[in-house]
Prior knowledge:
By secondary structure, the chain is α/β, with parallel strands linked by helices. It folds into two domains: 4-26 and 295-403, Alpha-Beta Complex (Aspartate Aminotransferase, domain 1); 51-292, Aspartate Aminotransferase, domain 2. It contains 15 helices and 17 strands. The protein has helices at residues 4-9, 36-49, 59-79, 92-102, 125-134, 151-161, 182-191, 202-206, 210-213, 238-241, 278-293, 296-315, 342-350, 364-370, 386-403; strands at 17-18, 21-22, 24-25, 86-89, 112-115, 137-140, 165-169, 194-198, 217-221, 232-236, 254-257, 262-264, 320-322, 332-337, 354-355, 357-359, 375-379. Helix 2 packs antiparallel against helix 11 (278-293), helix 4 runs parallel beside helix 5 (125-134) and helix 6 (151-161) packs parallel to helix 7 (182-191). The chain is globular and about 70 Å long. 4'-deoxy-4'-aminopyridoxal-5'-phosphate binds at residues 91-93, 120, 122-123, 169, 173, 198, 200-201, 221, 232. Residues 91-93, 120, 122-123, 169, 173, 198, 200-201, 221, 232 line the site of 4'-deoxy-4'-aminopyridoxal-5'-phosphate.
Amino acid sequence: MFDFETIRADFPLLTQTVNEYPLVYLDSAATSQKPLSVIKALESYYSAENANVHRGRHFLSEHATRRYEDTRTAIAEYFNVQRTEIVWTKGATESLNLIANGLTSHLKSGDKIAISAIEHHANIVPWQELAKKVNAELIILPITADLVLDSNECAAFIREHKPSVVAVTHASNTLGNITDLEPIITACKEVNATSVIDGAQAAMHLRPDLNKLDCDFYVFSAHKMLGPTGLGGLYGRYSRLNTLDVYQTGGEMIETVSLTHSTFRDAPGKFEAGTPHIAGVIAFAEAIAYLTALDFNGMRQHEHTIFNYAIKQLSTIAGITIYSHKENNIGNISFNYRDEHPFDLATLLDGYGIAVRSGHHCTQPIMSKLGIPGTVRASFALYNSLDDVDAFIKALKHCIELLD
Ligand code: PMP
C-alpha cells in the first residue's frame, strides 16, 4: 500500500515556509528532496564512519569500502543487472561524457551518431564533441508533433541509416514525455548500434528493469532519485562497458604503474579514478532502500493522480498553453501563460512559496522547435499532494491577475 501521509512526513524540508507561505516544491525534475534516512546516513557517515575506500586495512576503511560496494549491489538489484556493470560518477552528465569519450576508439570517420531533438544538453553536447573528434556524422531521430520520440519511425530510421551509436532519453526533463524504448533498442541490436539511454528523469519514476530493456548503457543521477547531490552512475552491459576507453585516469583505476606505462583494472574499477563521493554513495543506499520498499504501483498511481489533476486544473485557465504530453508522462508539466516571460511567472509564483523552474531547462532544441524562449515547469514526485496542486493553481491565478 502507498501510505502518502507517512511518506510526506519522511521529507523534513517540505514542512518549511517560504515567503510566509507553506513551501510547495514542484521542482523534483531538477533535484528530488531527500528522506530523513538519507540525511541521517550522511550525518552518521561523517560523524562515525569517515574513511577512504579500497586502500586501507584498518577497520573504518574496510567498513566504508563494504558499504560503498554494498550500494553498488543495491542499485544493481534496483535495475536488475550485475553489480560489476555499475559505475559511480558525479551525475548523469559525467556518465554521458564517460560513455561518449569511452567510445572514441570504437568509432571511425563517417560513422553516424543518432540523437533526438528532445534530449537534455547533457545528451547532446558530448556526442557533438565525439563527432568532431572522430569525424562522425550526427543524425537526428524523428519525433512526433507532440514532441515524443516516434519509436516505430525511429526504429525504421535506425535500420535505414545504421548509426554506430543511438543516444536517447527515457523521459524528457522539460516535458516529462516518456519514450517507448523497446522498438528503438531492438532496431539498435539489428544494426549493432550501441544504445545509450538517458535515464536521469525516468530512473525513479519508472524503476526500469534494465535486464529486460536490454540496452547497452543507461545513465542515472542519484540526486533525482532521493539521493545526495554530486552523485550518479551508469549501467553498462559488461562486454561493452569493459571495452570502453578509459575516461579519467589516476589513482585507484590502475593495476600497475611504471614511469612510462600503466595498466588498468577491469570495469567498473577502471572508470572510478580518485577518491569517489563515498558519503554520497553510502547515503544513496538509504534512498534505494526507500524506493524499493515502496509499493511501486501505488506510487505510480499516486503520481498519475497528482499529474492528471494538475493538467485538468491548468487546462481550465484561459491563456495557458501546455507543451507536455498529457498522458504519457512521468510528471513534468511545461507551460506558459500567453506570451509572458516564464521567468516573470516563476518569480511571481515564488512569492507564494511555489517552487517551479523556468527557462529552457537545458533543452534549447525543444525551445527552437516550439519557437519560444522557455517554459515554466512544474514537476511532481511521490511526496506531492493534491493540496500542493491546489496551492499552485490558486497562486497561479493570483499571478495571472497581477500580470493582466
Ligand atoms: N539528462 C536529463 C534528462 C536530465 O534531466 C538531467 C538533469 N537535469 C541530466 C541529464 C543531467 O544530470 P546531472 O545534472 O545530474 O548531471
